[in-house]
Amino acid sequence: KAGVTQTPRYLIKTRGQQVTLSCSPISGHRSVSWYQQTPGQGLQFLFEYFSETQRNKGNFPGRFSGRQFSNSRSEMNVSTLELGDSALYLCASREIAGNEQFFGPGTRLTVL
Amino acid sequence: TQLLEQSPQFLSIQEGENLTVYCNSSSVFSSLQWYRQEPGEGPVLLVTVVTGGEVKKLKRLTFQFGDARKDSSLHITAAQPGDTGLYLCAGAWYHSNSGYALNFGKGTSLLVTP
What we know:
The complex is a heterodimer.
Chain A: E1 5-7, E2 10-13, E3 19-24, E4 31-38, E5 42-50, E6 53-57, E7 64-68, E8 74-78, E9 87-94, E10 102-103, E11 107-111
Chain B: E1 4-7, E2 10-14, E3 19-25, E4 31-37, E5 44-49, E6 55-58, E7 61-65, E8 71-76, E9 85-94, E10 100-104, E11 108-113
Parallel strand pairs in B: 2-11
Antiparallel strand pairs in B: 1-3, 3-8, 4-5, 4-9, 6-7, 7-8, 9-10, 9-11
């Protein structure tokens, strides 16, 4: 079974721009979560989606948003990029009844 | 947010030594997971512990969940250079509308030199 895939792997943007990141979960996994990882703050939860609905949200500003499609694939959007948004963005999937999350390789976003 | 404290933050040891990494919280978690992460990659799940007092072994790695389900430890016996990486503990909690999230510790960066 293929793992979680994320595209693109690397992205360079400038302040004020917006960005969209994509995630395809493991086949059969309907829950998709997003995390931000920075050297200073570590791994922080952004939000979780299943059945195309946001179920849970972390403590991030409204510039961070996401959505999920009927095939469970998910996208995450960050608008009006700031330098502090530079991070590794990780997507994770799980079975709805499961308590284990499996992570993708991440998208490295650099904001200049 | 339920905080998870991991210690030590950094660890540099020689091949063959033993080590223990600790993960502590004031909150109770429904389960706790340990991950290992290589630079530039996503975390890879090592183990999930669910029951208080549970001990799980994965080759040279031993994981223990505290009786009160607030703390956990990871012990590596006879460390090898291939064990080098960032070890992360994460407590799972469920939101009222069935949402789920992992709350991560800051991680322990382990370097094992030959």
